[in-house]
Write a structure and sequence with these properties.
Protein name: Troponin I, fast skeletal muscle
Largest sheet: none
Number of strands: 0
Structural class: mainly alpha
Keywords: Acetylation, Actin-binding, Coiled coil, Muscle protein
GO biological process, one term: skeletal muscle contraction
Distance between the termini: 64 Å
Subunit structure: Binds to actin and tropomyosin.
Coiled coil: 8-60
Radius of gyration: 46 Å
């Protein structure tokens, strides 16, 4: 937090310095216009003079902008030439491709690949156990079961039934 406070102070000071420099530069370059007490012909001469100065500044701005654009184009061309000379190009992002083991071996070994790699053939076979055989299903009237288990007595019976098989 101390570093942030110090950075903010320096930033604020920098902004104040820039504003003061701008005001100083403008006060040197721009003289205040005194148009009061001038006749119509003098005002017209002043306007012509200001227009001439604006045209000169505008031409300079256009020339500088053209030079700047030319330089940026030249920099881009030189960067491309440097990349061409190095032979280093930006690699495109590669996508993941799912390839089976057989296809991968064929790609690596070519036509020499004769052995089929069936990964599932080496797995153990496991028999599914019938869970229904382990747990006998009581077939009866479901309405009686619902009536017997309703209320607090039914909850007590369920609690006692759950306790008894564990050996308590």
């Amino acid at each position: 937090s101390l570093m942030l406070a110090k950075a903010k102070e320096e930033w604020d000071q920098e902004l104040v310095d820039k504003q003061a420099e701008k005001e100083r530069y403008l006060s040197e370059r721009i003289t205040p216009l005194h148009t009061s007490g001038l006749s119509l012909s003098q005002l017209q001469d002043l306007c012509r003079e200001l227009h001439a100065k604006v045209e000169i500044v505008d031409e300079e701005r256009y020339d500088i902008e053209a030079k700047c654009n030319h330089n940026t184009r030249e920099i881009k061309d030189l960067k491309l030439k440097v990349l061409d000379l190095r032979g280093k190009f930006k690699r495109p992002p590669l996508r993941r491709v799912r390839v089976s083991a057989d296809a991968m071996l064929r790609a690596l070994l070519g036509s020499k690949h004769k052995v089929s790699m069936d990964l599932r053939a080496n797995l153990k076979s496991v028999k599914k156990e019938d869970t229904e055989k382990e747990r006998p299903v009581e077939v009866g009237d479901w309405r009686k079961n619902v009536e017997a288990m309703s209320g607090m007595e039914g909850r007590k019976k369920m609690f006692d039934a759950a306790k008894s098989p564990t050996g308590q």
